Each structure stands twice: as C-alpha cells, then as structure tokens.
Amino acid sequence: MKTIFFTTVFLRWLGVTSAGVPEKLGCANLPLSPKQRDLCRKKLFLLPSIQDGARLAIAECQNQFRHERWNCSTGQNPPVFGYESTSGTKETAFIYAVMAAGLVHAVTRTCSQDNMTECGCDSRLQGGGSAGEGWHWGGCSDHIQYGTWFSRRFIDNAVKNMSASRGEHTLSTMNQHNSEVGRQAIHRTMSTHCRCHGVSGSCAVKTCWKTMAPFERVGVYLKERYEHSVQVRDRSRRKMRRKDQRRLTVDKQQLLFFNKSPNYCLEDRRQGVVGTRDRRCNRTSSGPDGCNLLCCGRGYNTHLVRRVQRCECKFVWCCYVRCRRCESMNDMHTCK
Ligand SMILES: *[C@@H]1O[C@H](CO)[C@@H](O)[C@H](O)[C@H]1NC(C)=O
Ligand SMILES: *[C@@H]1O[C@H](CO)[C@@H](O)[C@H](O)[C@H]1NC(C)=O
Ligand SMILES: *[C@@H]1O[C@H](CO)[C@@H](O)[C@H](O)[C@H]1NC(C)=O
Ligand SMILES: *[C@@H]1O[C@H](CO)[C@@H](O)[C@H](O)[C@H]1NC(C)=O
C-alpha cells in the first residue's frame, strides 16, 4: 500500500505544482508524504527540476496520445490524471513510466547544466577513449545515475522487493515496475555525440560525450512499450485467478497492467472518462484519429472553418518579406 500512497501523493503534488502554485511555498506546504518532504528539504535545489519533470512528462503524454481516444487529458484540480492513475490499466502503466522518466530527465539536465557539487557530468568517462582510433571522452556526458536514484527515492520509496519474477503483482509493485521501465527508457535511448577537431575539419581527433535523447524519443519508446504491454494478474485478488493461467515471466522492459481499459468512447464522470464527443477527427485517416475509430461509430459533424494564412511571400530587397493574406475554407470534422 505504501507505494500507492507515495505515488498518489506524488501525482497530487504534480497537480499542484503544474497548476502553478508558487514554488516559494517550499516543501512544508506541499502535499507530500513525510518521507518526500524530508527528501524535498534535503534536495531543495531539485524543486524546479521536479516541476519541470512533471511538465515534460505530461506534455509528452499528451503528445503521444493526441490522436487516441484517451488523450492523456489532465484535470485542472489534482489529482492530475484522476481515474487513470489508479485504474491499473495500460494507461496507468504509461503514466507511471513517463512520470518517472520525466523526473530522471529533468534532474539529469539540471545536473549537467549546472555541474553542481551534488551531481554533475559523468566524470567516470573523463580521460577515457581510444587514442588509436582518434577519439576521447570530453565535454559533459549526462550522468543519469543521480537522476535515476532520485526518481526511485521520490516516487517508489519503500517497497524493496518486487515479485515480478514470480509473475505476481499488487498495484504497488506494478506501478513500481512501470516506473522503472520509464527510468530504463532514459538509459536505453541515450546516445553518443562527437565533435571533430583537426586541421580544416579533417576530423583527426574527436571529442565524444553521451547525452540523453530528447524527451520526445523517450515518449516514442514508451508509447511502443504501451502498445505491447502485458496483462498480469493482481495478487491481491486471488479469487479472480484463472487456474490454467501459465506463469508469465515478465520482461524488465515490458509495461504491465491488470485491468482492461474502458473504451473511452463515452463520458463517464464517475471514472473521470471524458469521452470523445466533440473531438476533432480525420475523415480520411484509417488510424486511431480517423472519424470512424475516434468517434466509436457514432458519426461526426462537419464544420466549415475559414483559415487565414500568409501566402505568396516574396523577399523584398532589402530586407524584408512581403506576403499576402490568403483565405481558404476547410472542412473540420468533430465526433458526435
Ligand atoms: C564539473 O565540475 C568538476 C569539479 O568541480 C570539474 O572538474 C569539471 O571539469 C566540471 N565539468 C564541466 C563540464 O564543467
Ligand atoms: C526478494 O524476493 C525473492 C523471491 O521471493 C527472494 O528470493 C529474495 O531473497 C528477496 N530479496 C530481498 C532483498 O528480500
Ligand atoms: C482531450 O479531449 C477532450 C475532449 O474529449 C478535450 O476537451 C481535451 O482538451 C483534450 N486534451 C488534450 C490534451 O488534447
Ligand atoms: C488525415 O489523414 C490523412 C491520411 O492519414 C493525412 O494524409 C492527412 O494529412 C490528415 N489530415 C489532417 C488534417 O491531419
């Protein structure tokens, strides 16, 4: 239960911080668990990073799901994700993964930029490389270990032992597992960049460093994990267990969920589902954003919308661009 408590507290807090409550309130006035408050006080310099991490994660979730029935919309009031943060569905899995990853990303970026005493660039690489092949490590390699540690401490807390190996989960171990998939996503999408030196760009010598991928890449990676997420059984509801269910060995990179998702078609206030009514759809697309799928077969309305654009732009010597205003009428479709 502890993890659930911590994580809902975490999500509540994100709700508060992303809703723009002044940071000056500090740790004492935020809805944190005692342990989180303690961590917050000890690592006060990370307060803005936690906020950034939350924003990054929410924005990327909405980006990845912009064409889907569930579009990762967040409530104005905490808890941010409402039903989805506790439903034990694939969506819960994605939320936990992207939140944990966002925190690692933001904390690591702060560490790299500011090279602080507590955390900085990855110094283990300094001086290494291969002189024979003409390259060496240099610059600032992102040191994700600190951010990963912080994300674990802040989000996961106390549950030490996961029973993933036995294929049995509770909601808290499931959340924790999925958070870890998110943190590993940062690790797995890292890449090496190099800069050339040498006479007139001959690239005789290269300086290389490791960087995290832009968070959008991490989002794409996690969205793929979401598409291939695996249903596991809920240990706390043994009665529901099917006798013939074989024991799954769960891959560390797979997102896990317990419950089938609702279809997200119709509004269900009790579950915080907003439904797809009035969502904009694409009449010609056969993907999830197509009117057929997005509107769940209810049909759609067509609106004529006027669009004004700059057009026929010409460069005028010297030095500006002159354009005309062009109007066009476009069809827009929204779900019934
Ligand atoms: C970061 O700080 C350490 C120690 O203060 C220093 O040795 C290192 O060169 C710095 N790295 C960068 C990239 O500024
Ligand atoms: C965690 O659980 C596994 C399997 O139940 C057990 O073998 C292992 O010793 C446990 N680890 C800790 C640190 O308790
Ligand atoms: C998600 O869809 C709802 C309507 O179903 C809309 O009100 C909301 O703005 C959308 N959220 C995002 C982030 O696009
Ligand atoms: C609608 O879908 C088609 C086919 O996938 C695509 O070519 C087109 O750009 C989409 N239109 C909009 C407005 O997104």
Automatic annotation (TrEMBL):
Location of this chain's protein in the cell: Secreted, Extracellular space, Extracellular matrix
Species of the source: Mola mola (Ocean sunfish)
Cross-referenced InterPro entries: Wnt (IPR005817), Wnt16 (IPR013304), Wnt_C (IPR043158), Wnt_CS (IPR018161)
One GO cellular component term noted in the UniProt record for this chain: extracellular space
Pfam families according to UniProt: wnt
Family label: Belongs to the Wnt family.
Keyword rRNA-binding annotated: no
A Gene Ontology molecular function term of the record: cytokine activity
Name listed for the protein in its UniProt record: Protein Wnt
